[in-house]
Design brief:
The structure is a single chain. The protein folds into 3 domains: 222 residues, Rossmann fold (3-Layer(aba) Sandwich); 58 residues; 199 residues, Rossmann fold. Helices cover 40% and strands 22% of the residues. The chain has a 6-stranded mixed beta sheet, with helices on both faces. Strands 13-14-15-12-16-17 form a 6-stranded mixed beta sheet, sandwiched between helices. β6, α7 and β7 form a beta-alpha-beta unit. α15 packs parallel to α16.
Amino acid sequence: MLQIRSLTITHRKDLRTIIRDFDFVLNRGDRAVLIGEEGNGKSTLLKWIYDPGLVESYAEADGIRTLQGELLGYLPQELPKEDKRKTVSEYFSGLPGFREADSFETEKAAAEVGLPGALLCSEREMRSLSGGERIKVQMAGLLLSHPDILLLDEPSNDIDLSTLRWLENMISRFPGSVLFISHDETLIERTANRVVLIEQLRRKSVPRVTAANMPFRLFMDERTRAFEKQRQEACSERREEKKALERFRRIEQTVESDLRSISRQDPHSGRLLKKKMKAVKSLEKRYEREHEEMTEVPEKESPITIRFERQRPMPAGKTVIEYDLPALTAPDGRVLAEHIALKVRGPEKICIIGDNGSGKTTLIRKIAAELLTRQDLRACYMPQNYEETLPFDRTPVDYLAPSGRKDEVTAVRTYLGSMKYTADEMFHPIRELSGGQKAKLLLLKISLSEADVLILDEPTRNFSPLSGPEVRAILKQFPGAVISVSHDRKYISEVCGKVYRLTEKGLESIEAARFREE
């Protein structure tokens, strides 16, 4: 059992409290998902639970964490830089569980996550692996240490569809307890039996944490119903209050008018009116008490707001790309696929899927390189690794308003506010932002362009389950073409009309309806 009592976490830089007086118990068999908008502190909370020292450099935490001898296993959202430079063999052999494991257990752990056992002894550097391969190596290492509680920060990022299904089964069948963060709504719907929602209300000045012992979809439905019921009750009470106050003001004005006009020669009537005014004042105090007891207008953190407004519809017959590639090779010279052919016309929205390491990111980089130089199209590229595009040393305002003109800065701050950035975050270096906030920044940059072609590598991977539906809706409504790589089943089913699987023999067409049926 993991118990948290009276936990408050405050960012040191802007003194913003992200969690206040949080109490929580994680019991054996719980599969609890942490959800909330980007930058609300989900990863910080998970780090603190694993090791409070991990957040000391940027946050102040006050609270009690109690374990009963359980072993924690932690998967970070990003592999530390020093580990990325290690070979797979160096990384894996340095893990605590490796020292006690024999070769059979090591091969079993690799097989469970769909890795060839030989990869764990490889001299390839961790940073040379695909994002999904890195996650698999880390997961194999975690399982090797036999933890009682799994703390997983975005385990679904970058892993292929077959490994996502494995992850669903692993979380569902894990004998201990699991607390995880994920933006994959399908994974959450199929695994979580508890939900912890972290919100930042009133322009991120008031933190609120809600814990519910129910599956995600039921939680979201009940939250919507309860919100709407409370809103209706609050509105109804305020309408009745307004009517009552209008009646009261009329009575009060009549009595005041009578008091002013009464003759001094009629003391009896004056006494009666004074008694009546006293009753009016008593009634006023009663209304004030009733107002304090009224149903509060409910608050919830709204998702991001973004629209594509500068883009013009693309003609249906326009050729976006006719791409032919005899061989797709990795940076180390390995041939990943042959005879690749891709045709995209008009405002088609396509998605490329495939196993981890099959070369999807390599392929979409090549497609982006060709489209970004085209003069008859305006293309924008959102890479999987945001550092390829974002200037990490600049601030969001500097990035979106490079001219520094007052009118441009004002407009950009309004746009950033619609994406739930605080005033402080708008002027933080981009490197200090969460993965989701960086993704928002790239999406906002694209929306402010006049692009008619979007090239997107895992576009939804860092958006919360609250913002995910909004992001999918705006990409679906985008009037131009979208060429993307994704493992997000809801994105594929709701946005993409065509799906291709990248194999060693090229691109294989797949029925998009499959993903709607899943």
